[in-house]
Amino acid sequence: MLRYLIPLVLFLVLAVFLAIGLTRDPHELKSVLINKPGPAFRLPQLKAADKMISNEDMRGKVWLLNVWASWCVACREEHPWLIKYAESGVVPIYGLNYKDRREDALAWLEDLGDPYTVSAVDLDGRVAIDYGVYGAPETYVIDQSGMIRLKHVGPITPDVWSKEILPVVQELNRQGK
Amino acid sequence: MNKLNGMNKSGRVACRRGWKGGGKPLFLTCSLVMLICLCAPFVNAQVQEEEVPSDDPVIEARLANLSKELRCLQCQNQTLADSPAGLAADLRREIRVQMKAGKSDQEIIAFLTQRYGDFILYKPRVTYTTYLLWFGPFILLLGGLYLLFHFIKQRRDSFVEKPLSADERRRAEELLASIPGKETT
User: Fold this and answer.
1) Whole-model pTM?
2) Closest chain A residue by Cα to residue B71
3) Is residue A28 less than 8 Å (CB to CB) from chain B?
4) Is B167 exposed, middle or buried (0-12, 13-18, 19+ CB in 10 A)?
5) What is the reported pLDDT for B38?
6) What is the per-residue pLDDT for A60?
7) Which residues on A lie below 8 Å from B113 (Cβ)?
8) pLDDT tens-digit series, residues A161-177
9) Among B41, B17, B85, residue whose Cα is nearest residue A133
10) What is this model's ipTM?
11) Closest partner residue to A123 among B47, B86, B87, by Cβ?
12) Which residues of A touch B109 (CB under 8 A)?
């Protein structure tokens, strides 16, 4: 009896592990920057190239940093939602325009609308390296003291917004008051 | 100086893979991909600075060595050395800059893992989360050896030497005697 039971148990254990493996997305990597200070940056603004924007400018408030580009297909998918959530005024969204041509980026915002309070231009992707960006779109929730509290890789959908991002933003806003 | 690529580059890689397999549907897929590649210049593309190798051969040799041990996070089964992805080129450029600034390989690895985590290392670190990964195979090997010895021993023990009875001995001698050219005692 035992000699038939042991292979069966081994098979079931293996099957369970493989089944769990199937449900996980290997492209979703946990950021090591969670609960660490957001890397400092000082970059030119997209719409006003002569002006700069720094992460220090947002100190004291909860904000989102959304990594986007006009060449990024999935960014197009999340764009209407970003506009909707920016209009709701819950949290300001700042853009990090990642390795994009200025004219392409400006045309994109012109065509599809601009959800960003300000977009910073990261032409060579150097700031993105500091943030551990490996595929646009990526979104960071950064708190009043400049700490990264959440990172979402991939497009923001209503599901992601209501289940992941909004609860963290609301909790941080509540704590900050 | 800026070179446009990204989309067309990955397309080309996909084609090369397809040819190996051959077959008509693959040919069609490849043709389609080629067509998309041709259209790529009309689509918004990633701004990618051209990769300039360092004029210092020592730095290039160190980079070649180090980037073999690092994972490209965009196409996760390729090393930083092999990957055509834009991010991989950016990271190689950053490594060159840091090497030129006199950073050691260890410092550069620390720089990268602080941003991308241990996942960027192709050779996982030995920590409590990777003990099973590192030592699991040896545990399995030891377990297998134990089972092997156990079964061999069990089998050997199952053979019991029994002396021949007088009747059996007589039959054996008869059989041996029947072999031509053989003397029996």
Assistant:
1) 0.73
2) A134
3) no
4) exposed
5) 63
6) 93
7) 32
8) 999 999 999 999 998 86
9) B85
10) 0.82
11) B47
12) none
Q: Which of A98, A112, A124, A126 should we substitute to test contact with B (largest number of B Cβ atoms within 10 Å)?
A: A124
Closest partner residue to B116 (CB to CB) among A100, A124, A134 is A134
Q: What distance in Å separates the CA atoms of residue A6 and residue B154, rounded to the nearest whole number?
A: 19
Q: What is the pLDDT of residues A57-114, one digit of tens each?
A: 999 999 999 999 999 999 999 999 999 999 999 999 999 999 999 999 999 999 999 9
CA atoms within 13 A on the CB side of B121: 17
Minimal C-alpha gap between A177 and chain B (Å): 31
Are A125 and A107 in contact by the 8 Å Cβ rule? The answer is: no
Distances (CA, A) of A96 to A101, A102, A138, B154: 13, 12, 10, 69
**Closest C-alpha to A138, from A63, A86, A91, A78:** A78
Length of chain B, in residues: 185
Are B44 and A31 inside 8 Å of each other by CB? no
Of residues A122, A99, A109, A74, the one with CA closest to residue B46: A99
Quick one: what percent of chain B has pLDDT higher than 70?
A: 80
Residue B15 has pLDDT above 70, yes or no: no
Contact: B46, A100; criterion CB under 8 Å = yes
Cα A93 → chain centroid: 11
Taking the CA of residue B162 and the nearest CA in chain A, the distance in Å comes to 30
Tell whether A12 lies on the interface with B, counting CB pairs under 8 A.
no
Contact A80, A15 (CB under 8 A): no
Angle, vertex CA B70, rays to CA B73 and CA A74, nearest 5: 10
Which of A68, A134, A151 to probe the B interface (max B CBs under 10 A)? A134
Residue B136 β-bridge partners: none
